[in-house]
Amino acid sequence: MTIATPTTTTFRPFALEEWQSRHEQEARWNIADSGVQPVVLSELLGDDPDALARLLAMDLHYPPVNGTPILRERIAALYPGVTPDQVLVTVGAAEANGIATTTITKPGDHVIVLEPGYRQVAGVAANHGCEVEAFHLIEERGWRPDLAELAAKLRPDTKLIAVSNPNNPTGAILTPEEVSEIVRLAASVGAWVLADEVYRGTEVVAATDEETPSFAGQYDRLVLTNSLSKAYGLSGLRVGWTISDAETMQAMWRRHEYATIATSNVSMALAELAVEPSVRARLFARNRALIREGLARLNAWVDSTDGLVTLTPPYATALAFIRYHLAIPSLDVAHALRKDGVLVGVGADFGEEYHLRVTHGLNAEIMDAALAQMSATFARLADRQANTSS
Question: Three-state SS across the chain?
Fold first, then answer.
């Protein structure tokens, strides 16, 4: 009996992740990653004398497939009006974004994504048989979204608009007015909004620790994704979640069962601790300090390049999307840096040439060494370009 008829399609690799997975183990200084200096287990457990004993006593069996009740309850409490039955715990935001995209869309649907951006949703949608277009953040406007471009690209068959807020790689944060306009435009054609909010809690403005408002409660056709990887500094736990209405969550749950069945129960036990309010506040404070100190260090380095490198200030994330002023494609520059021991993110992999994504929320000695080598590499590339053109 035939179960399904195979179809032929061109697979679109995830260029950014392929670049990192090929080269991150060999890099002397890896500043291509997208989070902060990772939290170690003892930091997470803190001063609780019984925390380690509870972990050692765990039964290593299958956990609840949709996430433990305590974890879903604590995640739901982070969002206005969200209940635990609207929460599905996933293997990182990567799984959350993937199953959300394939749940909402079908082959032939029209999808619009925000760029520069983390191109996972765009790639998943394209591999799913969707037609994918982009609307853009404009660097000359401080990485503000071109909402007129979004309006012009909307069609009656637009099924999904995907954004990251705060944005990866630019660190831009959508204003409440921009969020409202994206929602209004989506509603005008009945499209869904997928909001990847993994960088909420990484805001760098020192005057306030206020988190970027969530899209939660703004719209009925909405899927939110998040994880412990960025603001929490716990990427190794591979815990994420997705939130939507109960019917959509059930449909994503069915795809979750195909993809991973469940997140590790050890990871979920640690996640329960991480999202407990007092521990969450402690982790966020630790990571905001790293981000702010790292950004100050990076800004000083940018100033030292005499205009060879410039940066539109990020308002959140441990990322900087630096522009270099050389007529050399970003992949070539990234390869030159890689050969000198520094791994960075390739601007073209985010949809923006002549840029590189670097992480600055790392320990000072790592950043200082990486930036010193970047100065030497850029100087060599600038000299080579000058000699070629003379």
Answer: CCCCCCCCCCCCCCHHHHHHHHHCCCCCEECCCCCCCCCCHHHHHCCCCCHHHHHHCCCCCCCCCCCCHHHHHHHHCCCCCCCHHHEEEECHHHHHHHHHHHHHCCCCCEEEEEECCCCHHHHHHHHCCCEEEEEEEEHHHCCEECHHHHHHHCCCCEEEEEEECCCCCCCCCCCHHHHHHHHHHHHHHCCEEEEECCCCCCCCCCCCCCCCCCCCCCCCCEEEEEECCCCCCCHHHCCEEEECCHHHHHHHHHHHHHHCCCCCHHHHHHHHHHCCHHHHHHHHHHHHHHHHHHHHHHHHHHHHCCCCEECCCCCCCCEEEEEECCCCCHHHHHHHHHHCCEECEEHHHHCCCCEEEEECCCCHHHHHHHHHHHHHHHHHHHHHHHHHHC
pTM as predicted: 0.94
Per-residue pLDDT reduced to its tens digit, 148-173: 999 999 999 999 999 999 999 999 99
Domain ranges of the chain: 15-40+280-379, 62-276
The chain-wide mean pLDDT, for the chain, equals 94
Architecture of the domain whose range is 62-276: 3-Layer(aba) Sandwich (3.40)
Does the structure show a pLDDT above 50 at 2? no
- Looking at CATH, the fold of the domain delimited by 15-40+280-379 is given as Aspartate Aminotransferase, domain 1 (3.90.1150)
